[in-house]
Amino acid sequence: MDQGEASSELWYRARCCDCPSQGQLVRRLRIAEAAARRHADDKSHTVYVGDDRGNRIYGTTYHPGRERP
């Protein structure tokens, strides 16, 4: 693996829209999604998953009390 490949690897974290809470950076999207779901359910907050570059990941916004498909 060269330097170009290493820098293109994304990291993810859950980010809350209602409080300053942020999850820790993880390499797997599904782990960040699980953390976002947990926070949304536990705190009744809206949470999304973002990458380490500050972008929201499409389809990863979790609202309290809403079922996900």
Automatic annotation (TrEMBL):
Region (Disordered): 40-69
Protein name: Uncharacterized protein
Domain of life according to the entry: Bacteria
Compositional bias annotation for Basic and acidic residues: 40-55
Organism: Jiangella alkaliphila
